[in-house]
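agent> Task received from the user: take the single chain below, predict its 3D structure, and emit structure tokens. No templates, no multimer pairing.
agent> Plan: (1) validate residues, (2) run structure prediction, (3) serialize to tokens, (4) report one or two observations.
agent> Step 1 OK, no nonstandard residues flagged.
tool_call: predict_structure(input=
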Amino acid sequence: MRDQNPRRILVTGVGANPGIGLARSFLKLGHRVVAVDANPLAPGFFLDEVCPYVIPRATDPAYPAALTELCRALAVDAIVAGIENDLPPLLDLQPRLEAEGVRLWLPDAKSVHDCIDKARFHHVLTEHGIPTPRTWEPEDLDLVPTGVELVVKPRGGHGAQGVHMVTSLRHARVLCELVPGAIVQERIHGTEFTADCLMDREGKASAILRKRDLVKAGCVAVSSTFEDQAVHDLVLDTLRAVRARGLCCVQGFITDDDRVTITEVNVRIAGGYALTVAAGADLVGQMVNGLFGLPVDHDQLTYRTGVFLTNYLETLHVGDISELDIAAAPRGAVV
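)
tool_result: status=success, residues=335
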């Protein structure tokens, strides 16, 4: 259903599935989309009807000024992040952007960093008694029990980048020298799942569960919706533990003996959320309601089980680089 009050929404990170999916969903709802990314060849720039702009990377000192000036020049109503890298600078910019009339819907800074930082995430969940993989810092590898399969990954990584599965502690030590800001976790086997979640401003949450039946390079290729009360309850406990707000996704495993383990929370929409929408949940529409201070209707976030999705790589555009016509965001003084 198209929104009767169309907005101009800026979506960051349109080079990856979550940002591209959000841009498409907002357009389908009748909103105007400003698509931004640091890569001038980001696939989301070639979606029909988006306004594409190249911006500096989130770690670039020019990022705050460029984003603020772009929002002002285009009269942007709201920003929705499609990638974790944009969250820390957006948190810093939030007061200034909101003073300009630009809406954001993010948890507090501690909550965001507790989710981005995998060591902090492990500490928070352990503190709340929520099952999560055992985790070690590189200097603590002598404490790893013999025979434990391990995962070495960047402490602040995302999108399965820099993730290595190992069975040897010796290999884990070598990888800790090679992976920037490495952390080591116990590898969990079982049925992998994602819960697409929306936590309203009053603390009520809805969660739509889907199995990650086939995963390639961190992206779900085959997925199916399901119900499981134990998983649902643990997901909601996790959201409360990290003090989530707005749109997010929770990932974990169900082991062969039916134990549920939570592996991460992403403070953004998941790349495979299209299945949640296909199963009947108005995830993006209700997020837009909450983003603009309207009530979230959790009755619109129910879903059908047994709905499946298959995903594949899609070529959006082929062209001559010299003919690109994608504007660069303003690069003024840092604000």
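agent> Step 4: summary for the user.
The first strand starts at residue 8 and ends at 12.
agent> Done.
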